[in-house]
C-alpha cells in the first residue's frame, strides 16, 4: 500500500510589475523527470494608484473638476472616482459614492453646495481596480481655482500659496493680453471671487475666453472683459473694458477689495467694492464659451486673489 503524499497545488508569485501582462504555466516533476507544460494562462496585474493633481483641480458650489495622472506606463481601461461626503462643512456625516468607467484623467463631478468631500481615484484594468489614490479635500462653499503658473509673465513672481502676484521694479510694458490666468471655470451657474489691491497699483482684472489672443490687452477685444485701474497725477481712473470701449463712469472711493461675480446663465459679469458692498459696473453678454479669470499688473505692485468664498447676498440680485 502506497502512502499518500501532500503536494502543494498553489504558488504565490511576488514582485510583479503593476498594470503588466504575464503568461503563467505549470510543470510537474517527479523522479523520472519533468512533465510537459500546462496550457498557458494570461494574467494582468492591477494598475498603480493614480496621482491627483491638486493644483489643477477646481470647484464651485455645484461641482468640482478633478484632474489626475495615471501613474502607469501602460494604458488602463478606465478610472473610478470615489467620494466620501462629510456632510455640511464641519460635520461628520459620511456618504460614499463612486463614479465608474471614467475614460480620461479628469472628471467633472456634480456636488451639493456648502459641503465638504474627500475624493480619491482608482485606475481599473481587466485585472481589477488599483488601490485608492491619496485623497484630496474639496469644499463647495464657493468657487475655487488655482492660478496657472505656466501662464504667468516672466516678470511676475508669486507667493508660496500661489494667490498673491508680485511685479517688481523692472521697467517693462506688457504686450500680452493678461499677465496670468486662473483655471477655466467649466460649470454653468454663479461664481464669485475677490481681488485685493492697493491704491498705487495699476491693474486689470476680469475674464477671457480660452482662445483669447495673448498679444492684446485684456478688454481690448470681443473675447475678454475687465475692470482697469490707472493712476494719474490727479486721480484714480477706472475703466470697464470690452472690445476696447468703456462707459464713462467716475468712482469716488478707491476699492481695496474688488468682488467679481460671474453668472453664466444670466450672461452677466459684475464688479463690486466689496468693503462697501457697492456695485461698480455690470457687463451684459452671452457667454458662448467658458472663461478663465484673468489678472494683470501694469506697474510694480501686488495683487491677491481670494476665492473659495461664499458670494455675498448683494452680488446676485
From TrEMBL:
The keyword tRNA processing does not apply. The keyword Ligase does not apply. Keywords: Coiled coil. InterPro entries: B30.2/SPRY (IPR001870), B30.2/SPRY_sf (IPR043136), Butyrophylin_SPRY (IPR003879), ConA-like_dom_sf (IPR013320), E3_ligase_FN3/SPRY (IPR050617), FN3_dom (IPR003961), FN3_sf (IPR036116), Ig-like_fold (IPR013783). Signal peptide: none annotated. Residues 46-143 form the Fibronectin type-III domain. PROSITE patterns: B302_SPRY, FN3. Residues 125-313 form the B30.2/SPRY domain. This is Fibronectin type III and SPRY domain containing 2.
